[in-house]
Design brief:
alpha/beta, 5 helices, eight-stranded mixed sheet
């Protein structure tokens, strides 16, 4: 499979690229500057591109089987996440191919009917990225003519081990018996490549946690 990963030098992107390569796929990692191509896992083809530019994205996704966007904007520029989603959806509508969007957990629902972002203890400083992820998801759900999937990770993501053990969900937060929703970046990459190879959530959102 020919896969292009945007945000390939980030915490999530590097693991996604590495997992794809380990499974024998041809993986291109897109970064914003040539200097960051050195941060990509060995075996990936490093490309420089701008996920905010339609022309740049369109030129990088042609003839790809799957495009994964795992970009994360800098603090104060969270709204760019929505723009990236709009650009990706437009480019994939024109070029064809599948789009897998790595989003956030804030819009996942809780047993009380609210969302993660509605919880009283939700940090105020996380509100801008939560709002951006909500907009990102809304753009995907409104899109037509695009084969998209949106992934909301567990509430807590951290570097860790690749265990291959996780539970999948839909729009509701997945948590353990103690109410903890967590996943390693390594296992998130497993989840995403599983979806890449055997699509189960086309045209909808899904999540995963331990």
């Amino acid at each position: 499979m020919r896969i292009t990963v945007f945000g390939a030098a980030g915490d999530a992107g590097r693991r996604i690229v590495a997992e794809g390569l380990a499974r024998g796929h041809q993986v291109d990692g897109v970064v914003r500057s040539a200097a960051r191509t050195a941060e990509l896992p060995a075996g990936a083809r490093g490309l420089v591109g701008d996920a905010l530019s339609y022309d740049s994205v369109l030129g990088l996704v042609a003839d790809r089987d799957l495009v994964i966007t795992a970009t994360r904007p800098a603090h104060g520029r969270e709204a760019e996440l929505v723009t990236v989603a709009e650009v990706m959806l437009a480019a994939l509508a024109a070029a064809g191919g599948r789009l897998l969007v790595v989003g956030g957990a804030a819009t996942l629902t809780l047993p009380d009917g609210g969302t993660v972002a509605d919880a009283p203890d939700f940090p105020a400083g996380w509100r801008p990225i939560a709002d951006a992820c909500a907009g990102q998801l809304a753009r995907c759900r409104a899109a037509t003519g695009v084969d998209w999937t949106y992934f909301s990770p567990a509430a807590a993501l951290s570097p860790g081990e690749r265990t291959g053990r996780h539970r999948l969900g839909g729009d509701a937060l997945v948590a353990d018996a103690d109410g903890v929703s967590a996943l390693s970046y390594e296992d998130m990459a497993v989840v995403l490549l599983d979806e890449a190879e055997q699509p189960r959530h086309r045209g909808r959102r899904f999540t995963a946690a331990y």
